[in-house]
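# step 3/5: fold
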Amino acid sequence: MKNDFVLAFNEVVEERQLPREVILQALESAMVSAYRRSVNASNAQQVEAIVNQETGEVTIHAEKEVVESVQDERTEVSLDDAKKVDPEAELGTMVMIESTPKDFGRVAAQTARQVIQQRIRDAERQLQLEFYEKQLGEIISGIVQAINSQGLTIGLEMHAEGTMRRKDMIPRERFRIHDRVRALVAEVKNTPRGPQILLSRTHRDFLRRLLENEVPEIYHGVVEIRSIAREPGERAKVAVSASQGGIDPVGACVGIRGVRIQAIVKELHDEKIDVIEWNPDSSTFIAKAISPARVLGVYLNETPETGRTATVVVPEDQLSLAIGRNGQNARLAAKLTNWRIDIKSLTEAASDVLYKLQQNENLAELAETENEAVVKVENMLARKGEGRPLNPEEYDFMSKFVDRIEKQTMVRIEAPAPEEPDAELEALRASIPENYFEQDLLNVDGLPEHIAKILQEAEFRTMGELAIAMLTDSDQILKLQGIGPRSMEKIQALIAVVEADMAPAEETTDEDQPAAEEADTIEAAAEPVVEEPAAETATEEAAEGVVVEETSEETPEGEKVKSKKPGEELTFEDLFNLQPDAIVTEHLSEGEGTDDEEGYGGKDKKKKKKKRGEIVYDPDTDLTVRKKHHKRGAEDTWGEWQE
């Protein structure tokens, strides 16, 4: 026959629903605490309690020092008593000796009661926390234990309590004490007072789990729930799709005569549920999400600035149905499809299309093409504004017009235009030998393997790419994780070799300069060359009394000249003193000149060649024009004219 201890132990195990080892460990720990209190033992002393599960007898073993003469029985033991337990015991060693006090069972029962209860309570809380963390996101059932202004307290399995706040309850839903409630485990928190389990009946996953429980096809994965949009207690939209051919996902969720969906509606306090077939095409999916309204067209507009916007055109008699009460239907459709939805009637959409054609310059060509249709639609809208009815054919024409224009002007995200190549970067790339762009970094001598791998992870594959990055902006290499000053020194040493092999920049020659730049170079010369006209022309001009005005004029060819001034004759010496800036030269073509390579003022032949010309009087225009340069000889004599 079992004694009272064994019966009580088994009763606690059943009541608390805890493993026997947990309760036994709590009991032993309580006995150790009771022994320390009864004999006032130190916490540093090792004490063990052993409980006989058959008889319920408790024995205490304490660690004591072996001494010749016992001064304190709590911490010391004689050598003879120690050898009874451990034959190898010696003076100064520590042995575990049974030290159970007399009447310890009654004393322990009084002292260890609170400790046992606390240990069992802690073990219960830990098991509750582990159990309900596994139930997170699942539906559980409980009984209402208390109702207050904050919400409900619901009794759960394993003596746990859950909390359902008012915001997690379906509106207009009422519960009484002892009512059974099904709810979703929304959150589990570990607090000093035990696990806090938050329940919810408004979470969209609550509807998902109800569908899984009622529809076997969803539970087995044949039908998949794509998205859920829900306003608790009012309306919900569910998009489903079939993973196998030949299965109607909407029919599987609704059931025969709506049996399956009606059970869920009843659980959700008569919340209306629309089951929609999911479609990969966004336009088709949005049109179905607007149901039960009939849709004429869906036009998508996706830009980085405005986001994803869908314009839905519906007949006028379907506009209120598409929007829903307080915009509920449109709001749920937007949540379900993850698109911003703008619902318009057919006449409103036609007015917007006409305004777009008139205001947008990019649609001018389209407006000309659709000019005849635009006039018809304007007449229809004018009649509609006057309150006159339109026949079905006119509505159909307007619908096709809106659909045609919207599809041609639909805005889509386009790939960014490729950037124009940088001229300096292209020149730098061209100067680097081509073999460096074929040399893998892992095969470069002098570059450690770990540095090469870091550079390759940063999209620098070849030595040429690394050279371009280092020569343009070396900081982007230094910023890489794992690249330090020492690594940069090794990289720079390799780049120096590349720089030595780079092709030098091509120098521009004088022949490459355009003709317009030659005139600027001549005018900016340090010592301008003054060229004298030939003797014959000078004599003729002197004889004819050529004079020069102080003001300059401009010919149609853009050449500046000096016009003669009445009463002022130009002498032979004045011809030598003419300033070069008073006349504009006409450049010689390449290769014209004399055999003398040394020009006036000692200019070297590598410098730009001096241009030579002549001064000619034109009797038709009464102007003196310098046509070509003329080079004076070393003996200061006039040469012949250069034609």
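# step 4/5: annotate
The CA atoms of residues 188 and 197 lie 5 Å apart.
# step 5/5: archive (pending)
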